[in-house]
Amino acid sequence: MAIPWLAALKVIPWGDVISHAPTVLEKARELIDRKRGGADAAASSMATPNESATDVPSLGELKNRLLAAQQQIDQLYTHQAQMAQTLTDLAEQNAALVVMVGALRAKQRGMIAVVLVLVILLISWLVFRGLGSLGPV
Question: pTM, whole model, 2 decimals?
Answer without folding.
Answer: 0.46
